[in-house]
């Protein structure tokens, strides 16, 4: 029998990042998980290290690229005082992070579902009972939106899933098409696909992801969304037709 949410161990979390929007996103995610509580957020890794050394923190969500003290330097100085989840836009640091025994490694932009997996790993490490025995009976519903990086370092744009018509990949950029609006962000189509709920989102071509809810007509290997014709490649056609029949 699973334990109630009131019996869950409360994990004290600290978020460290030099970008204020990243702090806000993780603080929001933490507030949605019953067994996590936010101790604070800071752009100052020295301040964070002091809190850790005082024993005030159980888990640190830690950015790698920061001035004064990098995330990897922080790891070495903090020792075993707390558990660490690394957050970064740079996948090349993953191996070194795991060599320093981090709980998890989250690549930005961070989807709520991926954050929740990291939280569950931390719960399993910090709880005296196996994580499966102490999870709440129902997992909070993921948010119905994502944040995409804007055209400047500290700019993030919130996009509701319900507003996305389709997405087009352009080398290392993607274009999100919304009613009367086009947003461009620097990441690959595959990276974005990994953060989207599937369904309703489905990749139908090497260059396109569509929302099944927005398709108005399917004619052979062509989808019609508003005045846009989106091609369907043979690789994805069978899955598309199966999902259409199921819906």
From TrEMBL:
Domain Response regulatory per the UniProt entry, residue ranges: 12-123
Domain HTH LytTR-type per the UniProt entry, residue ranges: 148-246
Matching SUPFAM superfamilies: CheY-like
Keyword line: Phosphoprotein
Pfam family, one: Response_reg
Single GO molecular function: DNA binding
Sequence positions bearing 4-aspartylphosphate: 63
PANTHER family cross-referenced by the UniProt entry: STAGE 0 SPORULATION PROTEIN A HOMOLOG, TRANSCRIPTIONAL REGULATOR-RELATED
Protein name: Two component transcriptional regulator, LytTR family
């Amino acid at each position: 029998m699973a334990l109630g949410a009131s019996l869950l161990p409360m994990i004290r979390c600290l978020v460290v990042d030099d970008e204020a929007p990243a702090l806000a996103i993780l603080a929001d995610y933490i507030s949605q998980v019953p067994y996590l509580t936010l101790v604070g957020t800071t752009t100052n890794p020295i301040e964070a290290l002091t809190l850790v050394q005082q024993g005030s923190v159980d888990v640190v969500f830690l950015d790698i690229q920061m001035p004064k003290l990098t995330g990897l330097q922080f790891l070495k100085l903090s020792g075993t005082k707390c558990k660490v989840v690394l957050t970064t836009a740079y996948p090349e640091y993953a191996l070194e992070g795991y060599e320093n025994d981090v709980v998890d490694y989250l690549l930005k932009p961070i989807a709520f579902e991926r954050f929740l997996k990291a939280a569950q790993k931390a719960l399993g490490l910090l709880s005296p009972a196996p994580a499966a025995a102490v999870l709440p009976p129902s997992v909070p519903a993921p948010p119905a939106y994502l944040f995409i990086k804007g055209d400047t370092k500290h700019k993030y744009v919130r996009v509701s899933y319900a507003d996305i018509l389709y997405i087009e990949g352009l080398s290392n950029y993607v274009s999100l098409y919304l009613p009367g609006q086009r947003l461009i962000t620097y990441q690959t189509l595959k990276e974005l696909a990994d953060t989207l709920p599937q369904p309703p989102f489905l990749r139908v071509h090497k260059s396109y992801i569509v929302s099944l809810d927005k398709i108005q007509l399917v004619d052979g290997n062509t989808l019609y969304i508003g005045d846009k014709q989106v091609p369907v490649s043979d690789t994805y056609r069978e899955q598309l037709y199966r999902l259409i029949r199921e819906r």
